[in-house]
Amino acid sequence: MTEPLLSVEGLTLALPQDADRLHAVEDVSFSVGRGEILCLVGESGSGKSVCAQALMGLLPAAIRPVGGAMRCAGRDLLALDGEAWRSVRGREIAMIFQEPMTALNPVMRIGDQIAEAFEAHGLHAPSERWARALDLATEVGLPDPARILRAYPHEISGGQRQRAMIAMALALEPALLVADEPTTALDVTTQAQILKLIRELQRRRRMGVVFITHDFGVVREIADTVVVLEKGRVVESGTAAQVLTQPRHPYTRGLLDAIPSLDPAAHAPAEAQIVCEVAGLTKTYASRSGLFGDVRVVHAAKDVSFVIHRGETLGLVGESGSGKSTVARLVVRVLDPDSGRISVGGADLSVASGPRLRQARRRVQMVFQDPFASLNPRRRIGMSIADGPIAGGTPKSVALDEARALLALVGLDPRAADRFPHEFSGGQRQRIGIARALALRPDLIVADEPVSALDVSVQKQVLDLLQDLKTRLRLSMLFITHDLHVAAQICDRIAVMRRGEIVELRPARDLFASPEHPYTRELLAAAPRLPDRVR
To answer: What residues contact 419, with CB distance under 8 A and at least 6 apart?
Structure first.
């Protein structure tokens, strides 16, 4: 029997004494052969990323190995010291990180960052390093690679940044590639491209891949074998087909059941009353490349028009850069439009200013993508919810009582009003964000990717909450998402945006059953699907 490229046996990593459990991972075992892709799957806190850090020798000082073994190509990884790890990283094991904008150096050109791997290991002359970086950029499919190598990270798209990260990881031709949630922040078409690229590179180079994800749609697209982690322990493992179609453990079945379907859910019909009307909305940006470069004009929103009725959720979907979030910011008047009209609850937000704008903003509130970043870490959540009503003249004691009632409405203990944001989970923080948005009794909620940062089971809970609140309160929502599965479950109608324009706007059931625009068909084709037997 051929020895596996990577062997992890009984790995146990201890957490600090003040943690809520003893071990980050306990008695974890798996192996990866050459040319094999293994997916580590689980929710936040399951131990996936800690395993990745251990494989790269990047564990935080507070987390320490207390048992087990890790071997890669016969080398005992747990026995390596700092100098030995430097010779392993990049050459034998390389990593693709989740967020390329954070992982890349913002003040270095892309080409210099790829070539830096050769310099660190004393390989090639300087001129050869740049040529090799150009070869890698071409291999990972970067368009106009010579231009992109001269660009800085902020000057290229998210998908291009992730391709650059892959080129950096491949620079020293490692035997094992560790990919930690590399497609989580990407839209469906870019995600499909990156998954296809990793699969092609893995087959071409006969690499072993440890791919970390919480998305079973990604598992179906890329995995040969799967290991499911729950609270640091392996609860299920097997081939991708076995785990996806015949899950044995209740935790695995629960994760699969929580995945939203592409079949649109049935919703109650919206009322005739129009709550929000957007007509001819336009916003352009101009940027110059360099001091004397050409001026580039981008139409972030181009003649955007739609209406939202009482009790209706209108979804705004599209790839990154399509203009979705720009439209959201225009509707809440965080941005000023170049032209067009925005009416919410009868108030014209597009021309309001000063006190009139502050008063009109009470009619539209926002739920943000990152619930932790959008809450003040120094304020108790009761006050965070009550701040809006207090600013509008509500007595503090009354506003705090209403905040506690809102916490109960969104499924949290009213006594939690005295706690701080860091004391809650991600899903609980998003419930707090929803309560805060409801505090001013708005006519319209604008939800900008409100579940994209959440695990699939928590995502389902928040979507169920929004649907319940919509039914009970007859809420109207503008729901921004790049996830078509989520849009199918929450939206009554869907507007598809591309390059600042709405190219298709139809009832969700009609759009999913028979998309009319080629771009809509492209988005649907790129959306990952699970085998029917899972459902």
So the answer is: 380, 381
Mention every residue, 6+ apart, whose C-beta is less than 8 A from residue 122. Answer: none
CB 368 within 8 A of CB 433: yes
Report strand pairing: 364-367 vs 444-448: parallel
The token pair at 163 is 């391709």
DSSP secondary structure code for residue 379 in this structure: S
Residue with tokens 């016969």: 74
Q: Please write the tens of the pLDDT for every residue from 371-401.
A: 778 889 999 999 999 999 998 889 999 999 9
Return the residue matching tokens 């592409």.
262
Cβ-proximal residues to 482 (8 Å cutoff; 6+ apart), any chain: 187, 188, 317, 318, 319, 320, 324, 449, 452
pLDDT at 290: 54
Average pLDDT over residues 250-257: 91
Taking a C-beta distance cutoff of 8 angstroms, is the pair 499, 203 a contact? no
Question: What's the CA gap between 68 and 198, in Å, rounded?
Answer: 30
Tell me: pLDDT of 512 over 70: yes
CA distances to 297, 381, 411, 428 from 422, in Å: 41, 10, 18, 10
So what's the pLDDT on residue 192? 85
The helix/strand/coil state of 386 is: helix
Query: What integer pLDDT is reported at residue 447 of this predicted model?
Result: 94
Count Cα neighbours of 5 within 13 Å in the Cβ-side half-sphere. 20
| Burial class of residue 117 (count of CB atoms within 10 Å of its CB; 0-12, 13-18, 19+) | buried
Q: CA–CA distance from 528 to each of 204, 260, 484, 523 (Å)?
A: 23, 11, 10, 10
**What does the pLDDT look like over 120-140, one tens digit per residue?**
888 888 888 999 999 999 988
Q: Which of 164, 158, 151 lies closest to 184, judged by CA?
A: 158
What is the rounded CA–CA span in Å between residue 430 and residue 120? Answer: 43
Q: What is the mean pLDDT of residues 508-532?
A: 87
pLDDT at 535 over 60: no
- Residue 505 phi/psi, 5-degree rounding, is -140, 110
pTM exceeds 0.85, yes or no? no
Supply 81's token pair: 């010291």
- Strand, coil or helix: 201: helix
* Distance between CA atoms of residues 506 and 494, nearest Å: 6
Q: In this structure, what DSSP letter does residue 89 have?
A: B
Q: Is 150 helix (H, G, I), strand (E, B) or coil?
A: coil
Contact 10, 29 (CB under 8 A): yes
CA–CA dist 419, 7 (Å, integer): 43
Sign of CA dihedral 103, 105, 111, 114: negative
319-366 pLDDT, tens per residue? 877 889 899 999 998 888 999 999 998 888 888 888 888 888 889 999
* Residues 506 and 500: beta-carbon distance below 8 Å: no
Q: Is the per-residue pLDDT at 86 higher than 80?
A: yes
